[in-house]
Recover the amino acids of this structure.
C-alpha cells in the first residue's frame, strides 16, 4: 500500500461537495455514516448501489481513526465528480497515518487502512493548515 502526501492551503467547496462537522467522541462514526448515506442517495450521477456499503465502511474507518488518534475538531468531506468519489476526513493532527500489522489477538485495531486499500480506494494524505486531511478516493465505475 502506498500513501502520498500533498500540500494545500485551502479546502474550497465545489459543486458535488458536502462537508460535515463531526462531533467529538464515539458518536462521530455513526453520524458520519448517516450523513454519507444521505449524500449517496441524493448525489448525481449516482454511485452504483453495490458500492454504498464500501463507502460507508471507508467513512467509518477514517472517522474512527480520527476520533481515536487526534484531538478535535474533525470534518468529513464527500466530493463527487462524473468519474470519482473522494471521501476525506480532516483533523487537527499533523501525524501521518501509517499502515500497521493488524492486532487480531487484543483487538487494538490496525485494519482500517488495509480495509480501505482492499476496497480499491486510493489513499492519500494532504497537509492542511492546522492538521491533515486523509483521502480515500475511487472511480465511480
Amino acid at each position: 500500500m502506498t500513501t502520498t502526501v500533498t500540500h494545500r492551503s485551502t479546502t474550497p467547496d465545489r459543486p458535488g461537495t458536502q462537508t460535515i462537522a463531526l462531533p467529538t467522541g464515539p458518536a462521530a462514526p455513526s453520524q458520519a455514516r448517516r450523513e454519507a448515506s444521505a449524500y449517496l442517495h441524493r448525489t448525481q450521477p449516482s454511485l452504483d448501489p453495490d458500492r454504498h456499503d464500501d463507502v460507508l465502511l471507508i467513512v467509518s474507518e477514517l472517522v474512527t481513526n480520527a476520533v481515536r488518534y487526534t484531538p478535535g475538531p474533525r470534518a468529513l468531506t464527500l466530493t463527487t465528480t462524473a468519474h470519482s468519489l473522494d471521501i476525506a476526513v480532516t483533523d487537527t493532527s499533523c501525524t501521518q497515518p501509517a499502515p500497521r500489522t493488524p492486532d487480531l489477538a487484543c483487538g487494538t485495531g490496525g485494519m482500517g487502512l488495509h480495509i480501505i486499500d482492499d476496497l480499491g480506494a486510493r489513499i492519500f494524505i494532504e497537509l492542511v493548515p492546522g492538521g491533515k486531511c486523509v483521502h480515500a478516493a475511487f472511480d465511480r465505475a
About this structure: The beta strands are 4-7, 17-22, 74-80, 84-91, 122-128, 131-139.
